[in-house]
Design goal:
The structure holds 2 protein chains of 2 kinds. By secondary structure, chain A is an alpha+beta fold. Chain A is built from 9 helices and 18 strands. By secondary structure, chain B is α/β, with parallel strands linked by helices. The chains are: A alpha+beta, B alpha/beta.
């Protein structure tokens, strides 16, 4: 979307409301569509839970024009996640919804003129339900488009699929006969070889080549699950990171795999991984959370602890959906950003005349994220 | 894959490995031409240009205030610079992604006597292939990057000290030859 489209769409309106579908698509293409009222959605089906997540960002040291970008829930419905709409306020500025044309990664972004006190508040409603794929039962699944499968098999800036990634992947899958066997071997390798590092800032970066070259297989979800995804892609098997945030406690007894309570979730960002098999469709996985259970659950668990063993089995094929999925995007150029691409969009982003703000620096950039289950 | 493309981690910061857990490994530089490095020194306000430091061995050190190993290492780098004042040596540190107020506070609190260039948008770090902190690069007297090290590093002993000494010897030999020619 160019600057003129941005202004045309938003006008002087500082608050908006949009739902996935026609409005979002139109904005993504830069069409001069007005912000529409939400379409009615079906009631909550059995097994689904509806949540509301609110992000409030304040840039405390604005300089010149300030821009803020906040991720919105998945713009495509899935078997485990449905977006129910976004509403926002940007007093003193202008705001709009944007969808990345490659990955469909969505955000609401706002622009504030010099002298404004930039505050952007976004509320997103979404529904989730737990998902489990029975890997023992291959069957007919809805076909995925070749373009989508190609997208999630290619290299990205942080997830190259050649060189050391390819050679490492080949060594891991040696002897595996089927694609499922190969992915399982990679999953087990990541669980065995990596470690969760509590000192990693945020969720990590996920520079897979750097990790392998420097034998630095430590980090958090954005590192460990990116490693898994890149190694799977290196076999020509589609895989993707799914960036998001935990929104509720785990109902399965894993204190480390959920929020402490429904409420403040400001630091609960978490990314997961999926891989695609023609016989099963998109399959959920989360090797990083296995390492989290080992490190954090009840003060730390041995790898052969029954709780770890259960998590390890469960997290290859299923997700508990106490989690909001934002997007699958990599190497995103945010609208009107002047600071270059971002590796992924999971944290609020902001730029001033001084450049991109460190989204983990509370001196410049205050934000709070809350969640609640909607009635 | 270019270093610039590879480490495009945007506003997110990097992995800080645990300090002193393992002996850091010096790696030969495979990144081709020396990436550009210039900026204004936070403390002095003077322009820093890596290209102006030909004839000296330069330690380029990437760091951030939130990186625990960096907090340990930066005072040691400052002392190293002082102790090697008689050798053809210079240090250029690059703060990865933070603002001037935080950097100035860190420099003040740790009494650092080091040039510090800001890399707020992390473009310098991307060009150098920085994927974790702390990360250092040795640049020889001809301005070519020779090696890198990821993680906290003691430059006064072992392979890092030997690598420095080799580069000093080459720089001093070249300087003597240049003097002889004149």
């Amino acid at each position: 979307m160019d600057r003129r489209d941005f202004l045309r769409i938003t006008g002087a309106v500082t608050a908006g409301l949009a739902v996935p579908g026609t409005v979002s698509s139109a904005l993504a293409q830069g069409a001069a569509a007005p912000v529409a009222a939400p379409e009615p959605r079906p009631g909550v089906a059995p097994g689904w839970k509806v949540y509301e997540a609110t992000t409030r960002v304040e840039v405390t040291k604005p300089s010149g024009v300030t821009r803020v970008w906040l991720p919105t829930p998945l713009t495509q419905d899935t078997a485990y996640h449905r977006s129910l709409g976004n509403s926002w306020r940007a007093d003193g500025g202008t705001a709009a919804q944007w969808i990345d044309p490659i990955y469909g990664a969505g955000c609401v972004w706002a622009e504030f003129p010099e002298g404004a006190q930039p505050v952007l508040e976004l509320t997103s409603r979404f529904a989730t339900r737990d998902i489990a794929v029975d890997l023992a039962k291959p069957g007919a699944v809805p076909a995925e488009s070749p373009a989508t499968l190609a997208l999630y098999t290619k290299s990205t800036d942080l997830l190259p699929t050649g060189g050391i990634v390819k050679s490492t992947s080949n060594a891991i899958v040696k002897g595996a006969k089927t694609d499922l066997d190969k992915v399982r071997a990679i999953y087990e390798w990541v669980v065995e070889k990596s470690a969760r590092d509590p000192k990693t800032r945020g969720c990590g970066v996920g520079d897979v080549q750097f990790m392998l070259e420097h034998d630095a297989l430590r980090g958090k979800c954005a590192d460990l699950n990116a490693l898994f995804v890149a190694l799977v892609r290196a076999q020509g098997i589609p895989a993707r990171d799914v960036y998001g945030i935990r929104v509720a406690p785990s109902a399965l007894g894993y204190a480390s795999l959920g929020t402490k309570a429904v409420g403040t979730i400001t630091k609960a960002q978490h990314c997961r991984a999926e891989f695609y098999l023609p016989t099963h469709g998109w399959v959920p996985a989360d090797p990083a959370d296995v390492r989290k259970v080992i490190l954090e659950e009840a003060g730390g668990k041995a790898p052969d602890d029954p709780m770890v063993v259960a998590a390890r089995k469960r997290l290859f094929g299923s997700w508990e959906m106490n989690w909001l999925a934002y997007n699958y995007g990599h190497d995103l150029t945010l609208p009107e950003s002047t600071a270059g691409k971002i590796g992924f969009l999971m944290y609020p982003q902001a730029e001033t005349a001084d450049g991109r703000l460190d989204c983990l620096d509370p001196d410049n950039f205050h934000y709070a994220i809350t969640s609640k289950e909607a009635v | 894959v270019s270093a610039a493309a590879r480490a495009a981690a945007a506003a997110l910061a990097l992995v800080a490995i645990s300090a002193g857990a393992e002996e850091p490994r010096l790696r030969s530089w495979q990144g081709g031409e020396t990436p550009a490095l210039s900026g204004v020194d936070v403390a002095s306000g003077r322009q820093v240009e890596l290209g102006d430091l030909r004839g000296r061995v330069v330690l380029v050190q990437f760091w951030a205030s939130w990186c625990e190993p960096c907090e340990v290492e930066m005072p040691a780098i400052s002392r190293l610079r002082t102790s090697l004042a008689a050798r053809p040596f210079e240090v250029v540190t690059v703060n990865y992604g933070e603002g001037p107020a935080r950097v100035e506070q860190f420099v003040r609190e740790h009494r650092l006597e080091l040039p510090v260039v800001l890399d707020r948008d992390q473009r310098i770090g991307r060009a150098w292939g920085v994927g974790g902190l702390p990360m250092a690069f040795l640049v020889d007297a001809d301005g070519k990057v020779r090696s890198s090290v990821f993680g906290e590093c003691d430059w006064t002993r072992g392979e890092p000290a030997a690598a420095l000494e080799r580069l000093f010897a080459a720089a001093e030999r070249a300087a003597r030859q240049a003097t002889g020619r004149r």
